[in-house]
């Protein structure tokens, strides 16, 4: 009982200090001085559309970068049981993007995000789980694009291709 009270008080103190010091997640509620517009997208339309929707939330007015996307998504079987049914699966999203401004290439990168998960017999739950994993992978890719653009705002001569 005393341990439980100690943990509760410790948690409250930790939350108090995190809140009091101005801690907040990096990309949530962040204000950026730039916006990113998708100029061209090739490959997986669903992935590109989700990336574009997330990038539209940037509404900075100082600069507007243009990005070209080329993505693909694959679903791999990593392990099978003795019957040959998949037991461990993997979603892989590959993204190549080029950030330009005034038709000048500023940076170009190729990224791979992957997530492994166990197969479940309920296919509806499996598809919901895959969609959540896909969203998380896309969020990571968007974060990288935003970070690249942020770096370009700080140091406009970077070209990390």
Describe, in plain words, how this protein is organized in 3D.
This protein has 161 residues and is an alpha+beta fold. It has a single domain, classed as Double Stranded RNA Binding Domain. It contains three helices and four strands, in the order αβαβββα. It has a four-stranded mixed beta sheet with strand order 1-2-3-4, with helices on one face. Strand 3 (86-101) and strand 4 (104-118) form a beta hairpin. Helix 2 (45-55) packs across helix 3. The longest helix has 32 residues, at 123-154. The protein is flat and about 60 Å long.
- Given helix and strand content, the structural type is alpha+beta
Report the uncertain regions: none
Read across the widest sheet, the strand sequence of neighbours is: 1-2-3-4
Order of helices and strands: HEHEEEH
The tally of domains stands at: 1
User: Ends: how far apart?
Assistant: 57 Å
Number of helices: 3
Rounded Rg: 21 Å
- The total of beta strands comes to 4
Q: What's the name of the CATH homologous superfamily?
A: Lipoprotein like domain
Proper CATH architecture? 2-Layer Sandwich
**What is the global morphology?**
flat
Give the percentage of residues in beta strands: 35-45%
Question: What summary fits the major beta sheet?
Answer: 4 strands, mixed
The CATH class is Alpha Beta
Mean pLDDT: 84
């Amino acid at each position: 009982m005393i341990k439980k009270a100690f943990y509760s008080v410790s948690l409250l103190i930790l939350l108090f200090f995190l809140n009091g010091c101005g801690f907040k997640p990096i990309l949530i509620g962040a204000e950026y001085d730039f916006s990113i517009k998708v100029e061209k997208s090739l490959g997986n339309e669903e992935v590109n559309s989700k990336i574009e929707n997330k990038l539209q939330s940037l509404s900075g007015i100082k600069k507007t970068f243009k990005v070209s996307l080329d993505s693909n998504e694959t679903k791999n079987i990593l392990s099978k049981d003795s019957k040959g049914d998949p037991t461990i699966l993997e979603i892989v999203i590959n993204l190549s993007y080029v950030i330009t401004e005034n038709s000048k290439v500023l940076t170009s990168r190729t990224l791979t995000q992957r997530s492994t998960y166990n197969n479940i017999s309920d296919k509806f739950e499996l598809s919901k789980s895959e969609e959540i994993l896909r969203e998380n992978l896309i969020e990571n890719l968007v974060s990288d694009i935003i970070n690249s653009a942020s770096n370009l705002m700080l140091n406009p001569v970077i070209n990390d291709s």
